[in-house]
Design a protein that fits this description.
Helices cover 26% and strands 24% of the residues.
């Protein structure tokens, strides 16, 4: 049976298994109902892994996020819009309204499974302020209502003016939050606000004359409108979602097409995932919803092509997506740099949403494999074990420059974490007719179509899973048990990653008797007449496995990642004898032990074994290593960290001896408008990367930190060193940045000059400089008359229409 023929949205033909000849018995082929979600309220976890995290989300993360919303004026903005309070609109972004929406959504999920009278009343109070802020026609974006022209760069001068205004993004998050509150409490107060806003959207946008003809700009409203359709049954919401999907990349009203806004090309013409990673994940989730609800196979096949590119060429081993900080999005195929990996927390969450919907449309476990990978690694790393600090980006290497924060100016990630963590139980099961999919192995109780599923397991620390099946009445149906990708030959169902060592065989028993189940789409299918008390026992071997990346992934060459079960591991400086990780080598012959520590990092399985340590003189010493789950790093203070570990000394990095430059503080300045008066430029903050002593391979090598003048084009820009004491210097070497990006090119500068700081603090150009080189792919060395100074400054004139930057800047005596 051709696999493509099975991918029919809405009514999918499924076989139950494969016999020795890989053909399905004919009696097992029959039309099936759509795959449906099991509400998270029907699943109650009581395990040692997720339950504590969900409880911390309820008791710490959600209250903390609400306090930050209060402190940072998020609710004040609604009160000002409602006329309940006077004052200036606060915040720096047009989408700040979504912060309280997301936290309300998470709080609603929590309320549904753990009623809290105080929280219930709190939600009523803040929802009443939001409702009061809504304009009479249903419009709701506070910075526009409050006429905050300080933010007009985002939204313009009137409603719906700009594609990147985030007005529809605000609406999407508000609608999703209102639906969650309605489902949790039965109250329609917030839902009525959402319906009124959605009706305005349907009136304002569309194909008719007088309507606005363009997509949403920052996708999420597509998912939200599909949810509202399913709650209300009102067809115009689904039609509106479909319109936004179909309008993507068409430029009907003449607006400029943009990869950043996921508006560069019609969906049906796409085969590569590009642009802003969160927008991509949200958009393709919405496309999957529309395709499923309208039985549109063409859109689904387009999603398959895009998914193959993402999973086969642009997916991090942690389940994260989006390699570049510039534009918060994707680089070219196989660009999976580790230290500069962006992997926004919101993007990992979006990756779960998208893959979950792909599973619902197909019943294929390869999508669950990726959302499990993201769940246990890329999403969880975004929040501290304490629940009150967050990562915006999630690198796979760090020199210690990364630290979680309690909040951000652009605070999309903390709120997103609060709503997502509360909804984790909904990803465990699914049903198709009477059949049950077991997608995640988490101890607890689930009710699927009247059948109680009792799981007992210490997963992810242990691979033994016991499931007691208690149907309401004895009945024959299938239970599909996912055999995870980590128990096979490849971590994901593409050629991007592979295991170096072979998989050990899992075992499956029913009522104590070992069976050989049919395998279809990654599931072991058990078909029998189930009665109360039947027991399934699945044993998944959890040996430590080494992962090798496709050789096209340059930054992972000569290195392995370590996995055990669904958990990706890392080395952190806190656990190594010399507090360093980049000088460690774990050979292919090293035996690796795995031991559970109930105290360390709230309880983890830690890996340990022998390692080689490369000294500064090149000698190799024997040592030991300890590895912790990647999701738990940076919970004991900032330190070095790496996921991909060298298996040969030639790939290890030993930090050189300190230099004048490496000890310096790096500062960046306002645009130096007056070229002949560089002292007029004010210090804007500290820069990073140009003195980290990692040697670049080429001017397009962005695998390690570098400094770039983001959103600056054709202007004079500056960067300076502030030395720890006066030095006499006579030479600098500058390695210029030069690479292409979908949202702006970075080029070597048109010209540049070097200045030193005299004893009175004035900046003067160095005397008798040799040629100020602007060549790429090399150090540009400049000799000059020796000066004794406490600082040097570069002023670079950027090329017309281009930005620029510096990868490394050395200073010599």
């Amino acid at each position: 049976m051709n696999k493509k023929s099975k991918l029919i949205i809405g009514c999918i033909l499924f076989g139950f298994g494969a016999n020795a000849s890989n053909q399905l018995p004919k009696y097992l082929l029959r039309a099936k109902a759509p795959i449906t979600e099991v509400p998270f309220t029907n699943v109650h976890l009581n395990d040692v892994f997720w339950s504590p995290r969900i409880e911390i989300n309820r008791t710490v993360s959600i209250p903390s996020a609400f306090r930050e919303c209060e402190k940072n004026g998020r609710f004040d903005n609604f009160a000002i819009a409602a006329g309940l309070k006077k004052g200036e609109h606060r915040g720096d972004f047009s989408f700040d309204d979504t912060d309280p929406y997301k936290v309300i959504e998470g709080a609603s999920y929590s309320l549904a499974v753990h009623y809290d009278k105080k929280l219930d009343h709190y939600l009523d109070s803040v929802i009443s302020i939001i409702a009061a802020a809504q304009e009479s026609d249903g419009y709701l974006t506070t910075c526009v209502t409050n006429k905050c022209y300080r933010l007009s760069g985002w939204w313009g001068t009137h409603k719906w003016e700009k594609i990147n205004s985030h007005e529809l993004y605000n609406s999407g998050h508000m609608i999703e939050s209102a639906i969650a509150h309605y489902k949790a409490t039965g109250k329609r107060t917030f839902l009525n606000v959402a319906i009124k806003n959605a009706n305005l959207i349907c009136k304002t946008f569309g194909p008719k004359e007088g309507q606005i003809h363009r997509p949403s700009g920052h996708p999420i409203v597509e998912m939200a409108l599909c949810k509202l359709y399913k709650v209300t049954g009102t067809r115009q919401y689904l039609d509106m979602a479909k319109y936004f999907v179909e309008e993507t990349g068409r430029g009907t009203d003449g607006h400029a097409l943009s990869e950043y806004s996921q508006d560069h090309k019609p969906i049906l013409q796409q085969d590569e995932i590009v642009g802003h990673a969160v927008r991509a994940g949200y958009l393709f989730s919405g496309v999957a919803d529309v395709a499923s609800l309208t039985n549109d196979t063409a859109y689904f096949h387009a999603l398959e092509r895009i998914w193959e590119n993402m999973a086969g060429k642009k997916l991090y081993i942690t389940g994260g997506i989006g390699s570049r900080a510039e534009g918060e999005g994707f680089g070219p195929n196989y660009e999976l740099n580790n230290m500069t990996a962006y992997c926004e927390t919101c993007a990992s969450i979006a990756n779960v949403y998208w893959n979950y919907r792909m599973f619902l449309a197909t019943g294929d476990s390869k999508y669950v494999d990726i959302y499990e990978r993201a769940l246990y690694n890329g999403v969880l790393s975004g929040v501290s074990l304490s629940g009150d600090k967050f990562f915006y980006d999630n690198p796979l290497e760090s020199m210690g420059q990364h630290e979680r924060q309690k909040w951000f100016g652009c605070a999309c990630c903390p709120g997103n974490v609060t709503r997502f963590m509360a909804s984790v139980p909904q990803y465990q099961y699914a049903s198709q007719g009477r059949d049950i999919f077991v997608n995640l192995y988490i101890q607890g109780k689930g009710n699927v179509n009247g059948t109680e599923m009792l799981q007992q397991t210490d997963y992810p620390w242990n691979g033994n899973v016991k499931i007691t099946v208690n149907p309401k009445n004895n009945a024959k149906f299938n239970i599909r048990l996912r055999i995870p990708s980590w128990a096979k030959s490849r971590p994901v169902a593409t050629n991007l990653y592979s295991f170096v060592d072979s998989a050990k065989q899992y075992t499956l028993k029913v009522n104590g008797k070992e069976i050989k189940a049919y395998i279809t789409d990654g599931y072991a299918v058990v078909n029998k007449k189930w009665k109360k008390g039947d027991v399934i026992e699945l044993s998944l071997p959890m040996n430590v496995r080494r992962v090798k990346a496709n050789d096209n992934v340059e930054d992972d060459r000569g290195k392995y990642a370590l996995e055990r079960g669904p958990i990706v591991y890392c080395l952190e400086g806190k656990d190594q004898k010399d507090s360093a990780v980049f000088n460690k080598v774990i050979t292919t012959k090293t035996e690796i032990d795995a031991n559970y520590d109930s105290v360390k990092l709230n309880g983890i399985v830690e890996l340990s074994g022998k390692a080689e340590e490369i000294e500064q003189d090149g000698t190799v010493e024997n040592t030991t290593f300890h590895a912790i789950p990647y999701s738990t790093w940076n919970n004991r203070g900032a330190d070095q960290m790496e996921v991909w570990i060298p298996y040969s000394p030639i790939y290890a990095h030993v930090k050189p001896q300190p230099t004048i430059a490496s000890k310096a503080k790096t500062l960046f300045y306002q645009s130096a408008i007056q070229k002949d008066a560089p002292e007029t430029a004010a210090v804007m903050g500290e820069a990073w990367g140009v003195n980290d002593q990692w040697e670049p391979k080429r001017s397009s090598d962005i695998s390690k930190p570098y400094h770039y003048w983001w959103l600056k084009n054709g202007t004079p820009e500056s960067i300076a060193y502030e030395f720890d004491k006066p030095y006499t210097v006579s030479n600098v070497e500058v390695y210029w940045l030069d690479f292409d990006h979908y949202d702006g090119n970075f080029r070597t500068p048109e010209s540049w000059k070097l200045y030193y700081q005299d004893s009175e603090g004035n900046w003067k150009e160095v005397e008798h400089p040799s040629s100020y080189g602007i060549d790429k792919d090399k150090y540009n060395s400049v000799d000059f008359t020796p000066v004794t100074t406490t600082g040097l400054k570069i002023i670079a004139q950027l090329r017309k229409g281009a930005s620029g930057g510096i990868i490394e800047w050395k200073v010599n005596n």
